[in-house]
Design brief:
Elements (H helix, E strand, L loop, with lengths): L14 H20 L2 H17 L1 H4 L5 H20 L19 H4 L3 H9 L3 H12 L4 H8 L3 H23 L18
Helix pairs in contact: 1-2, 1-4, 2-4, 7-9, 8-9
């Protein structure tokens, strides 16, 4: 997913070449990360404006797409801090309408998945998106987030545990409720 196929190898990649090849991919990445297509477009636009100004340094990198994705992650986290919101608005159905639908995705309950992922803190959400959507290794995720690989595994573990707990609570609303002495759910007391 992160190869430079089609781009000049060993030379400077122009900004136009980069955008032509990677814009749909970085928009999808940002949409899954933010949970909202409009927010994703805003994040990518901000990042590409900054990247264009520094393209002389970015374009010579071995993997300029990796660097731009890191910029997207940083902008996403900064936007969350600025807005102080933890759950983005919008629905997952609004995403990816510019690309041909994936047949596997049509069988998944995508809206529920994106809603549940949106409930996670930003770092945990970023780890899950990078690991399962982008297919990155823990080492690559750690590099992108500027943390240790063990921290990535910890975020992933807590995020998946939170998703399991939420799933159990939704399937059985009585799970996890504290027992009250002398009370019974069956008779309503």
């Amino acid at each position: 997913m992160y190869s430079s196929d089609g781009l000049q190898s060993g030379g400077v990649v122009t900004f136009d070449e980069f955008v032509a090849q990677y814009l749909p991919a970085v928009l999808r990445f940002a949409a899954v990360l933010t949970g909202d297509r409009t927010s994703a477009e805003d994040v990518v636009q901000e990042v590409l404006i900054r990247a264009y100004a520094r393209w002389g340094r970015i374009g010579v990198l071995d993997r300029p797409d990796f660097y731009v994705r890191k910029m997207i992650l940083n902008e996403f986290r900064s936007a969350l801090r600025r807005s102080r919101r933890l759950i983005p608005a919008g629905s997952g159905a609004e995403m990816d309408d510019r690309v041909a639908p994936d047949h596997a995705v049509s069988h998944a309950d995508r809206d529920v998945l994106l809603t549940e992922i949106a409930k996670l803190p930003a770092q945990q959400r970023a780890v899950l998106v990078l690991r399962y959507y982008e297919g990155l290794s823990d080492t690559d995720i750690a590099d992108l987030l500027s943390v240790a690989p063990v921290t990535v595994r910890g975020y992933a573990s807590r995020a998946l545990a939170a998703q399991r707990i939420e799933f159990v609570r939704e399937s059985d609303p009585h799970v996890g409720l504290p027992a009250v002495k002398g009370a019974s759910l069956e008779n309503g007391t």
